[in-house]
Specification:
The complex is a heterodimer of chains A (about 425) and B (about 160).
Chain A (H helix, E strand, L loop, with lengths): L1 H10 L7 H13 L20 E4 L9 H9 L7 E2 L3 E4 L2 E10 L3 E10 L9 E7 L8 E10 L4 E9 L7 E9 L2 E8 L10 E3 L5 E3 L14 E8 L5 E7 L4 E11 L13 E5 L2 E6 L10 E11 L5 E9 L7 E4 L4 E2 L2 E8 L3 E8 L10 E5 L4 E2 L1 E10 L2 E11 L8 E6 L2 E4 L4
Antiparallel strand pairs in A: 1-6, 2-4, 3-4, 4-5, 5-8, 6-9, 7-8, 9-19, 10-18, 11-12, 13-14, 14-17, 15-18, 16-17, 20-22, 21-22, 22-23, 23-27, 24-25, 24-28, 26-27, 28-29
Chain B lengths: L4 H24 L2 H17 L10 H18 L9 H5 L8 H12 L2 H12 L4 H8 L3 H15 L4 H6 L1
Helix pairs in contact in B: 1-2, 1-3, 2-3, 6-8, 7-8
The chains are: A mainly beta (about 425), B mainly alpha (about 160).
Chain lengths: ~425, ~160
């Protein structure tokens, strides 16, 4: 065992987590809030999203839950089916409201209420549709449809692409955090290069003393700028202060350039120093000469407010009623280096199954569908996945219709620019 | 926990960075992708530092994150590159002996499900129970996969078998 480990270590000795990699990680920490997903890919297009953390911003009371969810579904409302089931504990009640599903996708609506009234407009939570995936990958997420401030009720949608909807599915809600604050506010920057009072921390960092030119933003809860200006050595600092009960280890800021906006020009080489009741951020790129180019200071990231997270997991089995499906055998037709197997068309989605030639990487994308009348049935990105993690050739591509279709109306599809005609059933 | 996430990140990168990078390389078989995965692992650890409760070792925790990151990359439709072991084998490894390359090749040639358990057990030194929890497999499945993987590795790891 030791022998194998040593041999692999020796063989991989050239791989080092070097200075450049460490710096790259540190830079990313400055531009990514902690607790926030990296968001490299849109949720619906992601091959594998685990579960989304959600910040609720909507605030709408009024119509009943069913009306709200069908309103949210728009043209897909006729495919909505009522769903029943509840999970309760710690004062929280999760209740299914309805769903829309086909063989490989599901949209499940549910409400979350709290007997103790702890939920609010900035609550974050995780939710996931747990079940088998049709292929090796699935894409899962959750979003808020509405928050009713009067009743404290959240209406949520959990969705999944690549799900095997014929297998049991469970909705699991966790990580309820009413103290989740997503900050994103602008603060003005002093017009003059003012030198401020400083102190030196135990580890030798120079930081601004608090309260020298404080600023608040009405849209920024829990955080304020306590001091902003230059130290005695001409280095620009911002000292952020947390209100009572707030903590913001995931918080950052960037001086925005007028000449090169959104390039994080002045964020490079930023040094963060924790200070009592806040953070001191030092921006060596902002100098007396470049100060005029700084348009404003943008403070952003996540902070934890005084509201306590609610521990627990709430799981509810979901019964999905799948929309009907049309299966079209493509009988080994060839498109480029792909051998087509079949199409599975529902009013909601189009799934193309195929096998890639040995050694040929990639998936089929750029899929378009045409109806019998010659009009396009618009599709948007979904998911591409191999069917089995051990066989990298057999794959499928799943796309969403932007409006429901009559499956028999689809006359042809275009794959990577090649048209494949579908025989009428 | 006391230690801030920023300070913890520095320490984690210094202490575990090389090991996590190599783990990612073994799981992905692609050194360039492994760099991305190792960086993403450290970033996720930084984000989740407050949630790390110490109910496993830091190394096991980072291993779990790295495995999830690599799994996501392997499953991603954007990961369209076919794994090219020669990139990994071509890395400068001054201390390596000729047989080391053959061992690396043999491990990389294993199907993903066997490679994962071999790397986690023999390289990261996780127990079958820990691997089971990480991969959501029964301990029996893990030991079966390890046995089958060992059989596949047998031709290049004679000493290993002789050592028992």
């Amino acid at each position: 065992m030791d022998d194998l480990r040593c041999r692999l270590d020796r063989a991989l000795d050239g791989l080092r987590f070097d200075f450049n990699m460490k710096n790259a990680v540190k830079e990313k920490t400055l531009s990514n809030g902690r607790g926030r997903r990296s968001g490299r890919l849109p949720a619906r297009a992601a091959a594998l999203a685990i579960c989304a953390v959600l910040v609720i911003t909507a605030a709408a009371a009024g119509p009943g839950i069913w009306e709200m969810l069908t309103g949210d579904l728009g043209p897909f409302a006729p495919y909505a089916r009522p769903a029943g089931g509840t999970a309760a504990g710690q004062g929280i009640r999760v209740e299914l409201a309805g769903s829309v599903s086909d063989r490989y996708t599901a949209r499940v609506y549910f409400t979350v209420t709290d007997q103790l009234g702890r939920l609010n407009a900035h609550t974050a939570l995780s939710a996931r549709l747990e079940g088998e995936t049709a292929g090796a990958a699935g894409s899962f997420g959750v979003r808020c449809v509405s928050y009713d401030a009067e009743t404290g009720q959240l209406l949520m949608e959990a969705y999944a692409d690549g799900l095997d909807a014929e297998q049991p599915v469970t909705l699991t809600v966790s990580n309820l955090n009413p103290g989740h604050y997503d900050v994103g506010s602008r603060f003005s920057v002093p017009a003059e290069a003012e030198t401020l009072e400083t102190a030196v921390t135990e580890d030798g960092s120079t930081v601004l003393l608090p309260g020298q030119n404080p600023q608040r933003s009405p849209e920024c809860t829990g955080i304020s700028v306590s001091s902003m200006g230059f130290d005695g050595a001409g280095v620009f600092h911002v000292r952020l202060a947390f209100d009572e009960g707030f903590a913001g280890g995931q918080l950052s800021a960037t001086p925005e350039s007028r000449s090169q906006p959104r390039t994080a020009l002045y964020q490079e080489d930023c040094v963060r120093t924790p200070v009592e009741g806040g953070i001191d951020l030092c921006f060596p790129r902002v100098t007396a000469e470049t100060l005029a180019d700084v348009d404003y200071l943008y403070v952003y990231g996540l902070c934890q407010g005084p509201e306590s997270p609610i521990e627990g997991r709430w799981s509810v089995p979901v019964t999905l009623e799948q929309a009907g499906q049309r299966i079209v055998d493509l009988g080994g037709k060839r498109v480029g280096s792909f051998t087509l197997d079949r199409l599975e068309i529902s009013p909601l989605t189009l799934a193309v199954f195929y096998e890639r030639d040995s050694g040929e990487p990639g998936f089929l994308y750029q899929i378009q569908a045409t109806k019998r009348d010659g009009s396009a049935a618009a599709l948007e990105g979904g998911l591409c996945s191999v069917l089995d993690g051990d066989n990298m050739r057999a794959s499928y591509s799943l796309s969403h219709f932007t409006e429901p279709v009559e499956t028999v109306e689809i006359a042809s599809i275009s794959l990577m620019g090649e048209v494949v005609w579908i025989n009428p059933d | 926990m006391g230690e801030t996430a920023d300070r913890a990140l520095e320490r984690l990168m210094d202490t575990y960075g090389d090991g996590i990078l190599r783990l990612c390389a073994l799981l992905l078989g692609d050194p360039a992708l492994a760099e991305d995965a190792a960086q993403e692992t450290m970033l996720r650890a930084w984000r989740g530092w407050d949630a790390f409760r110490g109910d496993c070792t830091e190394r096991t925790w980072l291993t779990a994150i790295a495995r999830n990151v690599c799994r996501s990359l392997l499953r991603s439709p954007w990961h369209t590159r076919r794994t090219d072991w020669t990139e990994l084998e071509a890395l400068p490894a001054p201390r390596a002996e000729p047989e080391d390359g053959a061992v690396l090749r043999a491990v990389l040639d294993l199907p993903v499900k066997y490679r994962e358990v071999v790397v986690l057990h023999y390289y990261q030194e996780l127990s079958a129970g820990e691997i089971g929890r990480l991969l959501r497999l029964s301990k029996h499945t893990v030991t079966t996969r390890l046995r089958r993987a060992r059989e596949r590795l047998k031709p290049v790891l004679k000493e290993w078998y002789e050592d028992g």
